[in-house]
Amino acid sequence: MAMMTRTFPLNENVDIPAVGFGTYLISNEDAPKAVQAAIECGYRHVDTASGYRNEAAVGEGIKMGLASTSLTREDIFVTTKLWPGNPAWGDAPKTHEQTLAECDASLERLGLDYVDLYLIHAPSGGPERHSQWRALIELQAAGKARSIGVSNFNLAHLEEIRAAGLQTPDANQIELHPWSQKPELLAYMAENGMAPIAYSSLVPLSTWRTVEGQASAKTDQMKADSGVFTDMATKYGVTEAQFLLRWGVQNGYAVLPKSLNPERMKQNIDLEGFEIDKTDMAAIRKMDRGQGVAWATGDPSTAV
After folding, report:
1. Whose CB has fewer CB within 10 Å in the chain, the N or C terminal residue?
2. What are the catalytic residues?
3. CB 107 within 8 A of CB 115
4. Are 54 and 23 in contact (CB under 8 A)?
5. DSSP character string of 157-192
6. By the 8 A CB rule, do 255 and 245 touch?
């Protein structure tokens, strides 16, 4: 096999690497070396968020990775996200002006002049969703974000933007894996030119979020079923993680695996040289169990 270098289009000028490096739950202590190692392993997309509280450390890792590989800023695709607020948590929604300021703060922490993709992290901004989205449109026009999008938005949230006559998102980053396939949402996105970006692709693995403090809504039944992809992966001579990531890429999703282990990093981007056959793809389509489980509070796309 070989390193995955495929990309997917976001807009006329921007393509996103098919495999990116996710940084959720990577500590500020670990992030610089982890991001540097990922870049050295061939990753050309690094995904973070203000809500991860590690942007400065991720930015340091990007700087270190560029220096050690002699790459330039233009060689690396960087995503970060606006935390929009959440009234249900006593967290007031960000206003238009606060959204603009939050992007500037993220850029400062990252040590960058722009990001390649800026997302609204969740639809929990409620009455400020339109204001936040208008702010992202301004940020793109100002050159601070080459592409803009949302995360965890459902069909109704996306239709709300379209119905208002606003520019539609370039992408929607959502939880996608064989147990949460969201076919209706993906069909709507395809019809309206919005690219899917998958997070938590490895939910079905028995090793997914087993460290204390890494909460999720993964059920006991799901945990008991975690070996379901062992035989499929063995058939192709790959790890279960490689199989699940390849499933995402084969469906047209950019994926965001995370690891602190350089050897595992290499495996997770080593996705060329095999293709899941039609029989197995059809079998997986029957495994959908509904909403995502990555958030302990439930799938955020269900927000009103």
Report:
1. C
2. 52
3. yes
4. yes
5. HHHHHHHTTPPPPSEEEEE-BTTB--HHHHHHHHHT
6. yes
Q: Is 64 exposed, middle or buried (0-12, 13-18, 19+ CB in 10 A)?
A: middle
Neighbours of 226 (CB within 10 A): 16
The answer to whether 265 touches 21, Cβ cutoff 8 Å, is yes
* 45-47, strands of its sheet edge to edge: 21-22, 45-47, 77-82, 117-120, 148-151, 171-175, 195-199, 254-255
**What letter does residue 290 receive in the DSSP assignment?**
S
- Give the span between the Cα atoms of 231 and 218, in whole angstroms: 22
Q: How many helices (H) and strands (E) does the chain have?
A: 11, 10
Interacting residues of 183 by C-beta distance below 8 A, sequence separation 6+: 288
Per DSSP, the residues of 59-100 read HHHHHHHHHHHT--GGG-EEEEEE---BGGGTBPPP-HHHHH
pLDDT over 80 at 94, yes or no = yes
Give the residue among 84, 145, 76, 161 at the shortest CA–CA distance from 120: 84
Instruction: State the pLDDT at residue 1.
Output: 59
Buried b (16+ CB within 10 A) or exposed e, 43-58: bbbbbbbbebebbbbb
d(CA 91, CA 106): 19
Show the tokens assigned to 203. Answer: 């939910």
Name the phi and psi angles at 115, rounded to 5: -115, 160
